[in-house]
Design brief:
The chain is α+β, with helices and mostly antiparallel strands. It is 19% helix and 27% strand. The chain has 6 helices and 15 strands.
């Protein structure tokens, strides 16, 4: 790919400039390209911190990412429920579920492999046992399949919308109605590729229902039930009605100094045990940092 730095790009770092022009690639991956000599500025290899003057001709030869590998790591795990088929983990905010671009260790999968050795292989070598996901800074209950039969059974329940998923979300503003339903399709934001949007006519169908739990000055605590599991669904839907999740700067909330996360917690999940068919309900209590957030209000 050939790019040209404009006058308005003067003063920008090379890696920042490329991330702006190529938002579909992570900054860490772009930095790897630069360090490996896959980016030339006026025909010369440069450092990621190279400051542009404007007018430079830049050649980029995208390289395949290094192969990812899910390896066991000794990382503490909080288990909320476990039987022969299923494990329900209490995922902390900040932990990524499985390896991806720029993240190769410290994931939930790394911790699970250390604890259990082997899990369901349906999701592939990088996602053993993973039936569904939570965003990195969303905490709470997440189901993991121990074997392939359990994985297929749970996946069928998720796709058939038979799994009840309930979240707690603190949002900005006064939510006027005590209950409500948001039914808007969700698609990738064509401008900011790290975001999703509910403002386009196209996209994947999604619905979220909410109930007011408690009201504070300038904030409302909601219980949110989702029938679909789209990327960033609750965050996108609540922002679309003018009530972004507290601390979620990606979707319009003011940055919350010192919090290190947004206020979204996977509080409860109900599913059928894959072998017996018994209804199982697992509850994740509100983490200390979110409880302290509410106490401060």
């Amino acid at each position: 790919m050939r790019l040209t730095a404009e006058a308005a790009d003067a003063g920008k770092r090379l890696d920042h400039f490329l991330h702006e022009r190529l938002p579909e690639f992570s900054r860490s991956r772009i930095q790897e390209w630069i360090k490996a000599g896959h980016v030339l500025v006026e025909g010369r290899a440069e450092r990621p911190s190279r400051i542009l003057r404007g007018g430079e001709s830049i050649e980029v030869e995208p390289a395949a990412p290094p192969p990812l590998d899910a390896t066991p790591e000794e990382i503490p795990l909080a288990i909320l429920y476990e039987d022969a088929d299923v494990v329900a983990v209490d995922k902390p905010a900040g932990m990524v579920v499985h390896a991806g671009a720029g993240i190769h260790s410290g994931t939930l999968v790394n911790a699970l492999l250390h604890r259990y050795g082997a899990l369901s292989g349906v999701g592939g070598a990088l996602r053993p046992g993973i039936v569904h996901r939570l965003d990195r800074f969303t905490s709470g209950v997440l189901l993991v399949a121990k074997n392939d039969a359990a994985h297929h059974a749970l996946a069928a329940q998720f796709s058939g919308r038979q799994v009840e998923k309930v979240y707690l979300a603190l949002v900005h503003g006064v939510v006027k109605q005590e209950t409500g339903r948001i039914e808007r399709p969700i698609a990738r934001d064509p401008v900011r590729r790290t975001r999703m949007t509910a403002r386009l006519a196209g996209g994947r169908a999604a619905w979220s229902e909410y109930r007011v739990v408690r009201r504070f000055a300038g904030f409302t605590l909601l219980e949110v039930r989702i029938g679909t599991g789209r990327t960033h669904q609750i965050r996108v839907h609540l922002a679309s009605i003018g009530h972004p999740v507290a601390g979620d700067a990606l979707y319009g909330a003011p940055k919350t100094a010192g919090r290190g996360r947004y206020f979204l917690h996977a509080h409860r999940i109900r599913f059928r045990q894959p072998t017996t068919g018994e209804q199982i309900t697992v509850v994740s209590p509100l983490p200390e940092e979110l409880d302290a957030w509410l106490q401060a209000l």
